[in-house]
Description:
Radius of gyration: 19 Å
Number of strands: 8
Amino acid sequence: MYRRMCLIRNFEYTLNDLYSAGKIVGDLHLYVGEEAVAVGVCCSLRKDDYILTTHRGHGYSLAKGADVNRIMAEFFGKSTGICKGKGGSMHLADVSVGLLGATGIVGGGIPLATGAAFSAKYRGTDQVAVGVFGDGASNQGTFHESLNLASIWDLPVVYICENNQYAESTHVSKVMKVKNIADRAVAYAMPGIVVDGMDVTAVYQAASDAVARARKGNGPTLIECKTYRFEGHEIGDPQYNYRTKQEVDQWKAKCPIRHLRRRLIESRVLAEKEFDEIDQDVKQQLESAVKFARESPDPDPQDAFRDIFVSSYF
């Protein structure tokens, strides 16, 4: 868990440096600060379990087991990218590890995860689907419709709400009266659980229980992870007009990586030297990934017309 969180954190800051240097382009929503949620959730899943994520989905791609080289190549728009250079930051997908995709549409992945869970139940497998979304998406109709269907059909799905306190720049308190988003689960007769999203083991335990419940055929669960993004909503977000430096610093003091590192040292699981070795391994892994991406071939122009699926309604 510690290694995975470090990989995600350093991957994100590597992207930030590449973006600042003009090496990659497009929107970029960093996952720094929320690593415990992705790692805790994905460690509770099997490879063949499904997950659908948001525009801030890089962490889940790495945590679910997608290849770091191919993910990096995707940001460079290369043919070796995880989506052959066509997905970019907000649409990472790798079906081979159960990552059915990220979406830039707020709340767009919630009904897709519900559909994946329906597929598993219809086919008679014991797979579980996970739908990840932010606090803002919990006010979308897709959220309520999906939870209602999942409840009445007892679907094997776990809904993960990453409540990082802000829907872009709007604080959660301005758009909903309930104290906890998980409180909304009662309307759909499913468990609603609030967990410390800065504690990877707490997330893992809550997710593992919900996944086990779903796998046994006992239906869906809504888990709200209270977390925080350390950086802006996206690259270029000035932040000063909606949150204070004091607030950011208070949450940074709860850094999930430092928190786990301290616990591992106190329990004598790892020594400082071993942490340094992990940090060095992650650094080398990312250097290799950037090299792989830079040296990978650009897509053939003809590939623009491949892997395209269109549905028409008349």
